[in-house]
Structures are given as C-alpha cells and as structure tokens.
Amino acid sequence: MAFASTFTYLLCLSLVFFSSCTCPTKVISRFPASIMPLAKRLISPPLYETKYFTQLLDHFNFNPQSYETFQQRYLINRSYWGGAESNAPIFVYTGNEGDIEWFAQNTGLMYEIAPPCKALLVFIEHRYYGESVPYEDDKEIAYKNSSTQGWLSSTQALADYATLILDLKKNLSAIESPVVVFGGSYGGMLAAWFRLKYPHVAMGALASSSPVLNFEGLVSPYSFNNIITQDFKGESQNCYKVIKESWTQIQETANQPGGLERLGASFRLCKDPLTADSLAIWLRTAYIYTAMTDYPTPSNFVKSLPAYPVRQMCKAIDNPKLGNDTFAKLYGGVNVYYNYTGNVKCFDLDHHSSDKPGFDQWTWQACTEMILPTDGNTEESIFPASTYNFSVRDTYCKSVFGIGPRPHWITTEYGGHDIRRVLRRYGSNIIFFNGLRDPWSGGGVLNNISDSIIAIVAKEGAHHVDLRFSSDEDPEWLRQVRRSEAQIITEWLGQYYLDFAQSSH
Q1: Of the chain's two ends, which shows fewer C-beta atoms within 10 Å, N or C?
Q2: Which residues are catalytic?
Q3: CA dist 286 to 65, 66, 210, 281, Å?
Q4: Count of CB atoms situated within 10 Å of the CB of 395
Q5: Contact 393/450 with Cβ under 8 angstroms?
C-alpha cells in the first residue's frame, strides 16, 4: 500500500495520520462512524418509523442547480411524545458520517430520557450518507468528482437539519415545541454548531465527544496520540513498551528474505502483507479504536469488544506464556479488537481498510474543511515519532480531488479561538461531554464556559459513552454523568416553558 501503485492506495486507505522513518505519512483522520457497517437492530420491533423529506441541494446560492432536490431520510419515534397541544419537546439527533439507523440504534440516552420529558425523537441522516444521496440516490454520480461532491459540507448539513425540523414542526402543528439537539463525535460537533448557528430552531444541545477545538492553531497535533499512549501505558508499562518497540522489529523483519511471509504467518493473515506499512496500519487501527471505545461494559460499537478492551488487550500482550515472541504478543492483543468472538480464521488486511480509495465521503470532508491534525507523535509516543505536516494532506487532496483543503474555514465559520471569552457572551444551553480516555478529548471543551455552557468530564470515559444505552453493569460515575445531563436538559425545558407562559400573557 504505497504511492504510484502502492503509496496512493496507502494514503487513501489509512485511518489516521502518522509518519516515521519506517512508514509513509497518512492523511485521513476518521471518527468511528466512518468505518462502521450498519449494525444489527438492538431491539425488536424497530425503534422508529422511516420517513423522507424533499431537501434542497444547495441552501446558499440561487442559481438553477441550487434548486435541485434529493430525498433526505429521517427516523421518528412518537411513542413517548406528549403531543403538539401540550408543546411537548422534540429531541433531534444531528446525524454524522454514516447510516442514520446505526446512530438511532446506538444512542440509548435519547430513548431513556424521552419518556419523562414526553419527547418526540427524530434522527436525521447527514447528506451524502446512508440513503440521503443527491442525484436521485445515484452514488456513482454523487461521489464522482469535486463538482458533484461539492455540496457535501457541514454548513449544508446544518441547513438541512434546520429546514427539516421547521417543516416537521409545522406539519405536526408543533410550532411552539422546544427542540433539543443531540450528537456524538462529528455529530456532536454538528449539535454544538447547530445551537450556535440556529438558536431560533434549537434551544439546547448535548454535544458528546465533540472535538470542536481539534483544529490547527487551537490544539497540539500531539494530543491525540499522547492520550492513546497514556491509555496503554496506564494499563501496563510492559504492554506499552512491547507495542512501542514493535514497529522497528516489523520493518526489520519485512526487509529480510521471507520476512513478509513470516509476518503473514505470525498474524494469521489470509495473504502475506504487501508491505510492512499495510500491516502497521492494521495494527494501529486496532490500538486507536480500542482506546477510543474503551468502554466499561461489553460493546458492539465498532467491533464486538469486552469491557475495558485496552486492559484486555494488554493482558493478552503481557501473557507470560508467550515469552519474548513480540509478534505472538501483538497477535494476541489485536485479537481482542478484530476477533474477540473467535469466529475469524484469518485476517484480510484489505477487508479492514476503508471501503474504497479516494472518493468516499469522509475523505472529501477531510480534504475540504474537516482538517483535524492528529498525526503528531513525541519520542514517548506508542507510535513512531512524527511531526504534523499539512503540506502532505494538501498535496494528496489536490491530487485526488483537484482542490485544496481550507484548514481555517471551520474556525472562521463556527469559531474556536478564545472560545471561553466569546461563547460566554452570546452562547448558551450546550453540554459538552468528554471522556479523558478518548483520544478526541484533547480537542474537546473540558471546562465550563458559563452557567449554561457546561463541560462534563469523566476521567474513565471513552468516546461518547454517555450516549450509549444504559446497562446494569454501568459504573456509578457513568450513571451520574447521565443523571447530570438529564437534569440539565430538564432545567432548560423548565425555563423554556416558564418563558413561554410569561410571554403568552
């Protein structure tokens, strides 16, 4: 996997940034949703009805093509709603980079706080993802090039949500029903930005694990991998050391006669790796997403994983029966991520890469506005030392799409610099949740900005763990996080109804 037959392919397929003396630089940072297939339904019968809304292609221009439309999917649950006559609230999930059903099936918090709030639940799919694809759902056309994919942006998505919500409220005769938006990861960023950009549509937002500060000039590009390093080092110094020292050993083995064959056999690969880099990407993916989804209970979010998967991975790596066999240790560790069920007989590295090179939706977003620097690695990093290099992404994106990234557009459009000073003057009613074991928390809001822009931080928390369905096995700290979020949202609604009653007289 490297450029000009292999390097280009490597750049397109990589899931995170990294560079070193042994590996080429990778260019695409991804949230979990962008690598997830549609999950199985968690509950039967389905949790929602499927609806479609005729959406404008372009909200911000008035040329003829702007008036073209597409069918935007949304999911709705009326089971708990108190109805329009009582101005009962509407809870909306601002869909992120994936099939909306997957988010609806993994956002249990909304279902669990809806009954006492008598809320209507709505999950809106992000344009260009799932079934919400322009050009008559013809993905061949929609993803063809920069001309047809140019309508894929966060600003267009937020305008979609505002348009759909207002139309839905009108059709339900629920004009005065308050709206609270929810989101996790990129969806959490959208929820926060939606509250700031459309305060007349949503009166509050829960933005979980939303790295709204993870942009150039705001956060160190070393923070992401520093947190992953600490996650593993905190579980086992030896585990950290084995992984850290393995990269050189992998490269040295690959350079030996028959080395790639030995690597293929050691890691039970279905076929020998094309290069040491392809194996390194596969291993890194396991470490990164295990850290990101280091939940305190078993999960099936990205993969089927046990509770505290980083701990379980390190236990496998530290197995004394494996002696000094580094590859056997690593194989045992990544099995926790790739094969915890034990059903996989061999691993296909291509299968565990992204769906296709170049023209997938998140690659486009990462090549235009979602420039999230995550590739810095210090000398202490669990990954090979590297520095952030924007020019690598710039060159790659121009070669693939013919356009260059705009690294400062997000902070120009939504802000971020001096966020405490700015938002305390005009923002309100946003909850930012972050778990400190989540590598994205380095770009999150970790301190209260005002009395109504609240940061909830969980030392043991992982990527939007608060949004997950509750379990009898949940630790007390997680229960308390959810209680706090529910209480804050309840207070927002109470104040809304008080203000509404006073304005009605």
Answers
A1: C
A2: 185, 438, 463
A3: 43, 42, 21, 9
A4: 15
A5: no
